[in-house]
Amino acid sequence: MEATPRSSSSIVVPLAAGDTADFFDVTRLKAALGKALVAFYPFAGRLDVGQDGRFHIDCNGQGGLFLVAHNSRLTVDDFRDFKPSPELRRLTVPSVDDAARTLCAIQVTFFKCGGVAIGMALHHAAMDVGGGFHFLQTWSAFCRDDERAVVDLPCHDHRTLLSARDPRAVRPGTLSVFCPTLTLSQSSGPLVTECMCLARRLPQDSTTRLVFVANIRRSLTPPLPDRYFGNAVIFLGVASEARDIATGHLASVAGRIVGAIGRMNDELVRSAIDYHEMEKSDGRPAPGCSLPATDLRVISWLGMPLYDVDFCWGKSVAVLRAESNRGGFVHLMDSSQGDGAVCMVICMEAAILDDFKRLLYANNLYSML
User: Fold this and answer.
1) With 80 as the cut, is the pLDDT of residue 156 above it?
2) Which residue did the predictor score with more confidence, 342 or 143?
3) Looking at residues 231-244, what average pLDDT do you find?
4) Over 80: is that where the pLDDT of 210 sits?
5) Cα gap 271→10, rounded to integer Å
6) What are phi and psi of 57, to 5 degrees?
7) Helix H segments across 103-167?
8) Nearest residue to 317 (alpha-carbon basis) of 301, 338, 286
9) Which residues lie closer than 8 Å to 289 by C-beta, 6 or more apart?
């Protein structure tokens, strides 16, 4: 497993004020969190570095960070129009020293209106976004139902289910065709890329890549357990010349993605795992650590149970990324209104983002940017 100290997702879940005396009782929250950390024990460990220089998790049971804060300036309603920013992260998510190597940090912030926000920093060395929301659902279930809670325990069998083969073998053409089924790639993905190419004013002969985070759980034989906890994702990309995309020739881009879907199978996934393992053992950096200015990386949270979490005091009014500070990254999230709309969070220069919004609206793809 390879990661960097700052490789974490920061999530903010604001909730309106309740009318019960025990509304967001801190003792109850901490007790439930302790039970959740028993099941999700990697979060209670620490990120460490082995003799080979690679990061791994030391499951030493030291626990996560839990903080309580009070903010007399903001209300929950302020979060309805909030956008990811360093200020939002500073107000709602714990600041963790890299030297501490903490994998799970949580802050409960009480506002003057009586509402609450739960801010979390969860390290990607331990899980992908699906695992993060599974953890949040489990914590809330223990808080809501205590010993009567019905939870789906996570599967931690990483070494057996996603280990490299011996001997390792990479099927020719694996990386060029590795592409799972993503609704985004067949609909809004090419259009988002076209609008971004135009907004960035890329040279016509430059090569641009649309990069996705691919969930491989259903591509293996047999499939991974539904509650597999870990990183079951791989980055994949489709490349094209800027002139083909900017002039509206998107069918070829979408066609290459759709064509790869039909060839997606266990062998391709296993080859990709072996390939990445060989790159690490050769001492070379894994691909995808940096994002060129010509590229766009799309991370979809669509379909995640963002608004199903209930700690016993009602569901959240919104689910937000606390900060988005990596240029060219796009996060897609379901709207809190449940109307099928998509919220799009992009980190981009202001001038480029303004042009991008104008182009999206002109194509009737309405987003919150």
Assistant:
1) yes
2) 143
3) 76
4) no
5) 32
6) -100, 125
7) 129-145, 158-161
8) 338
9) none
Instruction: Count CA atoms closer than 13 A to 27's CA, side-chain side.
Output: 1
- The answer to whether 98 touches 8, Cβ cutoff 8 Å, is no
Q: Can you tell me the distance from the alpha carbon of 255 to that of 257, in angstroms, rounded to the nearest whole number? A: 5
Q: Which two tokens stand for residue 105?
A: 């940090």
Q: What is the mean pLDDT of residues 187-208?
A: 71
Active site annotation includes 355: no
* Catalytic pick among 25, 244, 310, 355: 310
Q: Which of 124, 134, 276, 331 is catalytic?
A: 124
Write out the two tokens for 158.
């990483």
DSSP letter (8 states) at residue 296: E
How many residues are listed for the chain in this entry? 369
- Angle of the 188-200 helix axis to the 251-261 helix axis, nearest 10: 140
CA nearest to 67, candidates 109, 115, 24: 109
Long-range interactions of 336-342: CB distance < 8 A, separation 24+: 336/306, 336/307, 338/307, 341/366, 342/188, 342/302, 342/367
Strand partners, 238: 210
Specify the pTM: 0.82
Q: With CA atoms as reference, report the closest residue to 321 among 68, 193, 185, 129.
A: 129
Look up residue 41 and give its two tokens: 């024990």
Comparing 43 with 251, which gets the higher pLDDT? 43
- The pLDDT, as a whole number, for residue 59 is 94
CA distance 352 to 369: 12
Within 13 Å of residue 89, how many CA atoms lie on the same side as its CB? 16
Is 124 a catalytic site residue? Answer: yes
